[in-house]
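Just curious: can you write whichever protein you like plus the matching structure tokens?

***
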Amino acid sequence: MNNKIWQKLLKPSTRSFYQEGKKLTNYSFWDWLHGYVYSRWPYFYIGVGTGEHRLSQMIAPLWKIASRVFQFESNGKDESKRVTFADTYHGKVVPLEEAKRLVTINKSIDIGDLEQVIPYTSARDIVLLNPDHIAVLECPCRASRSNPCKPLDVCLIIGEPFASFIVEHHPQRARWINQTEAVDILTAEHERGHVHHAFFKDAMLDRFYAICNCCSCCCGAMQAWQNGIPMLAPSGYVIQIDRDRCQSCGTCVEYCQFHALSMENGRLHVDEEKCMGCGACIPKCEQHAHSLVLDSRKGIPLEIQKLMGN
């Protein structure tokens, strides 16, 4: 197809997405096509992935085959470079304050290969072009459910070319917001007991592109994690209980999205193995008995200011 005709057919944000992909040495056309499909039809993509779409049983096997073929091509047919699904699409749990910092960055940044912070073999860069360009999108995971948690508009798409692509292609489900509005959404979701995840995906230019506010009843990534697929990395923290303050009322237990809190013999118990350090339980304790503490077993926190050298 003539290049000028091709450019006329594509929306400006699609061309920007393609041009950004061309700058990456290990980003193939198949990677870009995968990213385009994922961003252009996220409700179909996630609906099939979660098994909620009516065509899931028919399409899922075909999609797995296609994904293997595209991955095989993009890795140069090198078997040693094969990575798991969790390596290509994953999230890092971030407590509220760090999530706020991610949506209030005031300059473009390029931080590559965060191996210690993001423990995956793929998609672990933070490259933010125009980080103040933020779009809020109706969550595809929630939207795919028959009885979803509300509100739906809780997925924050951050920076370019992603934010423009989402707004341009999903005008009925996405809108531009400013950084203050993004902080307000994060705060409100924290009060609802939901978890902030910084999401990374290989097809999304091999880097961070969104913060979603997740609940275990709707989130596909959290359900995959519960089923043994290691798609989520802990925050680097673990919850600590002040036993002098705690009254073992059990209120926090129902808000623990990772089932790390339970009542045993009338006493609050913390399963530190399961705790992901999200801090969702903290605002639910009227006695202020919960706090997050660093735990080396849980990896290194995603602290954007330290990574930026501030």
Remarks:
- The radius of gyration is 20 Å.
